[in-house]
Write a structure and sequence with these properties.
- The structure is a single chain.
- The protein is mainly alpha-helical.
- It has 2 domains: 180 residues; 210 residues, Up-down Bundle (I/LWEQ domain), CATH 1.20.1410.
- Helices cover 79% and strands 0% of the residues.
- The chain has 16 helices and no strands.
- The chain is globular and about 60 Å long.
Amino acid sequence: MRSIVERQQRVTPLELFFDLVFVYAVTQVTTMMSQDLTWRGVGRGVLVLAALWWAWTGYAWLTNMLEPEEGLPRAGMFGAMAAMLVAAIAVPGAFGSNAVLFGAAYVLVRLVNLALYAIAGRRDPDFVRAFVRFAPTAAIGPLLILAASFVEGWVRLALWVIAILALYSGPLLDRGQGWRLSPAHFAERYGLIVIIALGESIFAIGFATAGVVITPATIAAAVLGLAVIAALWWAYFDVFAVLAQQQLSATSGVTRARLARDCYSYLHMPMIAGIVLFALGLKITTHDVHQPLAVVPAVALCGGLSLYFFTHVLTRLRLVALIRRTTEERPGWIGPGRLAAAIGTLAAIPAAVALPALAALTLVAAVCWALIVWDLLHYREHRIQVREARP
């Protein structure tokens, strides 16, 4: 029996190429929500984002199991890219005129993923058993999304919700047995997708300012938006991502697979959703900086940031729980900073509704950078230790 050797290489050009299609899909989700600025519209956008995220994360795990740039896997990756592109084109109408197109393309994306998993497991009986456990839910979810395209109203929504629950429940059934991954490659892949999501926020600024008269207030909003995005980048990459990768590298076997599943596949999804919601709010804010935001854009702007920081808190709790179970160490880096930032940005929603949009954006930028200053001052020594120990 020959097991699959952990890949120690960096993210490949083909993986980055694949992620470009996902960038477009995420941009389309923001477009979808901006066309229907209601709770229903945002809810539908989050469901579509959840489906797209699970398709992407399936390929992130896949490329840890096989070399994507060799022979049949390369052809499969190109085929999946084509199907993902069609699904992305159909995103704005995923609950309307393009529902069938989106559903069919999404099924194809997932079927190619499962086929490549089968290739990856040809010489690994342990993974074959894992594949048999998760494959049913991985297939049922997309089929339910396709079925939803043939019905209307609450039945369509119900089928979508059931499909997402089916997709996300799959990894809980196999308990992480049979999966192998390279921590450095895996963490880098998810880190790059965070950068891609942050790039979507920058795109939102560009889309909002296209075709409008550029004023000093517009420039100020663009710069403040970039300041918030920079703070989000700093909050993730300065120490947070390094700590997560270190803990992933310190584990092995089932423990490593479960940690990767929880901290990356599951908890990165609300993190990405928070960035996308912020991008939606930023797009509306930058378009008209002098008027107060309506309730839905205000919740997107402030609540998206709150969701992002609160997910950081949950991820740290998951990592701390692992450290306390496996060592005598009592980590002191959980801290109140991110929880305070999550509460502070959420509490800014009433101000975002009452004040001009530019003032609301200034307020949330101040909260975000207060967190960065707190981290720099309060965790100065620990930050240096962590970054010096970077693999």
